[in-house]
Amino acid sequence: MAWIKRTNNARLMDFISGFKTPKFLLMSVLMLAFVSCAVSYKFNGSSINYAKVKTIQIATFPIRSSYVYAPLGTTFNQKLEDAYVRQTRLTQVKQNGDLQIEGEITGYNQYNQSVSADGFSSEVKLQITVNVRFVNNTNHDEDFERSFSAFRTYPSTSMLTDVQDDLISEMVNEIVDQIFNDTVANW
Questions:
Q1: In sequence order, what are the residues at sequence separation of 6 or more whose Cβ sits closer than 8 angstroms to the Cβ of residue 179?
Q2: What is the rounded (10 degree) CA torsion for 158, 161, 165, 170?
Q3: Residue bearing the bigger pLDDT, 162 or 32
Q4: Which of 4, 39, 84, 99 has its C-alpha lying 20 to 30 A from 52's C-alpha?
Q5: One domain, residues 28 and 67
Q6: 41 pLDDT more than 90
Q7: Both 103 and 181 in a single domain?
């Protein structure tokens, strides 16, 4: 009996001494961290309190710039709505939304950007500006009216009609990201 008792004690001591190894301690700490911690990540960047905010109202943004390119309005409005559908759980409504976004496209302009050695323009700058009015009916401290803009340059040897669709797509994506970040991401 004493032999069995001593063997069990030896086994217990071997088991306990295993706790002292750094490898075991590291594994124990990692397991404890995984079990006891709940980590929440939002990869879309939004920080919406869905207990308070459930709906969003996005008005159609008309083109109010002096130069009008009709596909710009359609592209912008569609991408703006798509951003909120894809990246939030908000329900879109026609009126009385918890969040309200409205505004207009106020600028679609091109400028000579740089001059080459021969004195002629070598690059042209294309710029889009959008004025946005944002109302958060659950927290009016976050309301704002602000202009957002983006630009791209292209070689003056290219025709605007050849490059504008691609450039508009890039600029609209950038402006929509800016609007999304300022309205619901709170960065």
A1: 80, 83, 101, 130, 132, 148
A2: 40
A3: 162
A4: 39
A5: no
A6: no
A7: yes
Tell me which residue has tokens 């946005």. Answer: 132
**Burial code of 103-127, b = ≥16 C-beta within 10 A, e = fewer?**
bbbbbbebeeeeeeeeeeeebbebb
Stated pTM of the model: 0.74
Q: For residue 149, give its domain range.
A: 55-185
Whether residue 48 lies inside any domain: the answer is no
Q: Is residue 45 part of a domain?
A: no
Q: Does residue 1 have a pLDDT over 90? A: no
Say yes or no: 59 and 11 in one domain.
no
Closest CA to 130 of 65, 39, 70: 65
8 A C-beta contact, residue 149 and residue 131: no
**92 in a domain, yes or no?**
yes
The pLDDT of residue 10 is: 62
Average pLDDT, the chain: 85
Model pLDDT for residues 118-147, shown as the tens digit of each residue: 878 889 999 999 999 999 999 999 999 999
**Which of these, 133, 50, 55, lies nearest to 97 by C-alpha position?**
55
Q: How many CB atoms lie within 10 A of CB 55?
A: 15
CA 94 to chain centre: 23
d(CA 62, CA 74): 9
